[in-house]
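input
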Amino acid sequence: MKILEMKMKKLSTNEIRKAWVNFFEKDCGLEHKFYKSASLVPDNPKLLLNSAGMVPFIPYFIGATKRPEPPRAVSIQKCARVGGKDSDLSNIGYTQRHHSFFEMLGNFSFGNYFKQEVIPMAWKFVTEVLGLPSKKLYVSVFEGDDTRPFDEESYNLWADIFKNVYPEKEIAEHIWKLTAKDNFWGPPGPTGPCGPCSEIYYDLGEHILDKDDRYIEIWNLVFMQFEKLDDGSLKPLIDIVTGK
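output
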């Protein structure tokens, strides 16, 4: 199935997979190690099925296992969302955006790089590798709430990128501030890694009246800043720069 276009060339799903792995292994500026998909049935008693690409790496995020070298990973993980807190079962068949089984392309850093590095990486991949027109792209950031702050750093990083795309007065229109429901991810089970996220959307055109159908999420940048504990509190994860 042909699904994306790059400079007059259409890419198959296999070509997108290869471009994804190649970008993070060789071209993004920080070498990532490629990991094959783990089993759909996770080695985690709190999860029924593997619902996200980060699940196999939970021990690294929470410091239960020594970080690998290099401390960066790229993967294409088989996922299912038909049960538990991340279930999409009630939406399957009613929208074009929900699936029972799919592959999740992911890139991960274990105490090595963070927002300042990954946001420009993501922009480079979608605009240069996939060739998506920059003016068709929108992003979102976590607006904050009573217990968690507004993700000002991500907002400013996107604003700097969009200065080269839009007039200054239009930049804010392309950076949406959304609630925790849309822009605070995880954990995949009752406890585990979680944090604010920033999503990238592709605009299919103003002829589509439903906003959810018009702006299609193509990438969710999740910033693993916390570990949710059994009592519901959020514990800061290892230092994102030093890994200590």
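quick obs: The first strand starts at residue 2 and ends at 6.
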